[in-house]
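Known limitations

Structure tokens in this collection are predictions and should be treated as such. Users comparing against experimental data should check residue numbering before alignment. To illustrate the layout, the record for Glycerol kinase is reproduced below. The input appears on top and the generated tokens appear beneath it.
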Amino acid sequence: MADTYIGAIDQGTTGTRFMVFDHEGQVVANAYEQHEQIYPEPGWVEHDPIEIWENTQEVVTRGLRDGGLDATQLEALGITNQRETTVVWDAETGKPVHNAIVWQDRRTTDRVEQLEEEDKVEWIRGKTGLEADAYFAATKTEWILDNAEPLKLQSSRGESVRNRAEQGELRMGTIDTWLIYNLTGEHITDVTNASRTMLYDIEGLNWDPELLDEFGVPESMLPEVRPSSDEATYGSTDPDGFLGAEVPVAGALGDQQAALFGQTCFDAGDAKNTYGTGSFYLMNTGDEAVSSEHGLLTTIGFQLSGEPVQYALEGSIFITGAAIEWLEDVDLINNAAQTAELARSVDSTDGVYMVPAFTGLGAPHWDGRARGTLVGMTRGTRKEHIVRATLESIAYQTRDIAEAMEADSGVETTSLRVDGGAVKNNFLCQLQSDIIQTEIARPEVDETTALGSAYAAGLAVGYWDSVDELRDNWQVDREFSPEMDTSEADRMYSRWDDAVERSLDWAREE
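Generated tokens:
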């Protein structure tokens, strides 16, 4: 076992990472490549699926080379991905008919408001566990079918994308499906990604015919849905392809569910928060799909081969790490690491609150027309105050979710496992512990998204025997305990709702 490994492709919002893990869950190879963010219009966000696939091949090849490894040493590949981001492609040529529409994209907000006016929100939530929102894949797919440029056929006449979809000539999928298709030739997704489309019945575990009809999505476009860790595997790479080896693709999880799995949150009540472009707080609710009364999503956490689906409650925060990127974009900081130093240099924000609603607000507010807001500034406000307010906004948004999570589940969070790039910031971790008045546990391997998909693939092929073996792998790097008085944390948090209120319903067309 010493010379074989599990590979994980982690296809995220800003780039693609390939990591190789050994039996102890330690990283033995790592490569990363950014891809372009495309903003055709305000509120629109796209990616080039071809660029993503080319970058995937590049990072896998480079990661193996730099790690001194051969593809034949990989027992399996796992995939994790930015969820909801939607690709539609030609079944015969494999070419996308349009750029991928990214989860952050708000172009279908009008369509969502139509659903609200037609009183279909509860109907959708009852089937999918999701809020009706532009975030999910259903309205993105519908938009592509109605708005992508007509495809040129051999007869040289243009035929609408929707017509070709109805004739069974197009395929759709989230990014996991796109990568599985390019790696294996198979059209497959896993239950976690299916549960993010707003087309999937999460208790019946099937593509829902009524939802497909509502959004005009032909069932022939949709991938086969499999367990997240699949002993039957999704297929294998072509030995004559870029890897030069036949490696089974055996696991897939949407990135946030992958982090839940990588954090070994296998039992009901276990919770984690991932701090990436956005932040995503998930609590395992076991084999019960718990309905939310407080603006959370009910979603599928994971499924192992031959076992029941495990559900989760999720709080989706659209902008956290991206708010730190914005500070860099506007030259308030030189790099992300500088935020801790600047924030520490002042005792408080001096009354400044930042609401980073750059692409609307997710849970628990669900306002696609909210926009980023800075309030409370005076002539004495300096960049240090704005930087600190930005970090505090991450902690406040997380407390919003923590309180909703406790109200829905009836379970008090005593420890929160955290991961993602931002948790390298000790100041933020301590601030988060203070604001939600909860223990924070940061693991040794903080790339738990990739680790989770590796665990899923490795379990499927017997590289690891059981989830108990994975629990033994999980190691704490550092724990943070609240140092702030509860009354002070409550005082700071008390004005957050006021600031949020001022950001709501801002992006109205004239």
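For this record: Residues 5-254 form a domain with the Nucleotidyltransferase; domain 5 fold (CATH 3.30.420.40). The longest strand covers residues 27-34. Please report discrepancies through the issue tracker.
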